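Re: export button greyed out
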Amino acid sequence: MSLKNLLTERLSQAFAAVAGEPVDPVVRRSRHADFQAEGALALAHRLGRPPREIAAEVLDRAVLTDLCSAVQVSGPGFVNLTVAGGLLDAQLCGMAADARLGAAPAGRPETVLVDYSGPNVAKEMHVGHLRSTIIGDATVRLLDWLGHRVIRANHLGDWGTPFGMLIEHLRDLGESSAAHELSIGDLDSFYKGARVKFDADEAFRQRARQRVVALQGGDPETLRLWRLLVAESESYFLAVYDRLGVVLTRQDFVGESYYNELLGPVTDELDRLDLLTDSGDAACVFPAGFLGRDDEPLPLIVRKRDGGYGYPATDLAAIRYRLQDLGATRLLYVVGLPQRQHFEMVYAVARQAGWLRPPARAEHIGFGLVLGPDGRKLASRAGDSVKLVSLLDEAVGRAGALARQKNPDLDPATVAEVARAVGIGAVKYADLSNDRSRDYVFDWDRMLALNGNTAPYLQYAHARIQSIFRRAGGTPASGGPTGSAPAGDSISVTEPAERALALELLNFGAVIGIVEQNLEFHRLAGHLHAVAVAFNGFFEHCPVLRADREVRNSRLALCDLTARVLRQGLYLLGIAAPNRM
RNA sequence: GCGCCCGUAGCUCAGCGGAUAGAGCAGCUGCCUUCUAAGCAGUUGGCCGCAGGUUCGAAUCCUGCCGGGCGCACCA
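Workaround output, generated via the alternate export path:
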């Protein structure tokens, strides 16, 4: 049990005795002690007694001698709690012996579907896909680690009218040269080539339209060409994901086209349920509570006037499939904030149709924009969106230059490895360390800085620990992302810097539990940063290798535990922790 | 017009009901014969957009303004 819970439990009993009813002691971390209990303040009004008097009586009745080395009433009525060293030691040892580092596995594992990344076939991946891919990846890693059954859903844009134009362009170029252009990742010029012809050439436009009809009609040759486009794009996306270090695989690609045959049946079902309204020849659902301009009810257009289906229909088919066929009880849509209303409407319809029922729920994991230094949406000098691969190349390039400059002793292979870990890690961390719902400013110098709340700072703390173990003449017991339990040396913290580090480390499990619920990864990032800060303080003030044997072993164990927390935390964010840098 | 997100130090951001609002950068000061100074320690800097309200207590909750961004029927 966590320190906070232990303290809460004991204090609850004392508070209940004083108040004559259950009271939350409200235990929090404190600047004035290790923890503080604030419950007396809230109680004062109800009991009509001064809060300090209540706090004093609570302390009188509370059994805390085995948990705290000092307790004190302070300020207007806070109870300040200093955790006993022995308790810290025991907690640290327990944590060190736990492969999960004190993070509770899911109490009730469920099937979670995460919809993220979602690039468009035959189009370049750009910064617009960055956040969804990174946040989705972290979501998948965390929930999977906690023992949930996680289904990764990469909802590719692989269907729709643009494919008429793209397939015709493919035929014009010839399959082999088109495939070549696509396989080298030059999707931009392929798409633009098609676009230019479509805009300028009436004959091409005609062919494109007919091709759309053929595609929707299931013409075998058209489908073959379409599959070629999709397959080439998928290969390209996989290369980008590999570079990014994202766990998406080809099996996770379930594009919009997958739902084509479900569109009719879903529409029929909505009709049977009497949810469908004919509105100007379009088949619409009007979920309650959604109003558009001029206060008219806002429709979700299931079938367009021309008989075609748009993305609302696909999203409805997908949500039904995910709930009914895949059995997901938690649906996470990692999609930009602007689409908030659209998804709220989809969920509302799914609820009205009876598909989305508790305990199943759907959540929009929305996020803001990536801004350039000018405070506007990040764009290239030419004004168009920045290719994701060029962004990653630059990240690795900059990190490599920094690595060579800061640590000239590294051999080229290590530099390459460090450059990748640091460069890609910096980009991901810059994203995940900010509140999802806000826009954030993309700034190379800041995200690659060794100071502050950055990936390199955390990675550096980890590398310093590994350096200690190299010099100690042995490798730390832990190796993988989760690691195994260390040698079993007992930990004993005495110095203030050790205590500060211990208190941060012991917070890991609670933070994981919170992020499991709200998927606010900046809280995990903030925790890891606090751990790294505490470690660097410890590193400065508490020699490890020069200490006497007993202290040395204890500190080595503390170092290993710190490394494991950093490594596991970074792993959950999708970031590598190199052993040297 | 309606709805959503956001206004915290010069800059980039935490904090989202509790004690004197915290980091990093930028500025100023110290610390490398000692486990990676890619570090540490110190210091300067804030009517928490404005105004009401709720509360023993508000940056945090409610209401109304002001400012910025984004959505709101057949493109995804």
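Chain A has four domains: 3-83, 111-156+256-364, 162-231, 455-572. The button fix ships in the next patch.
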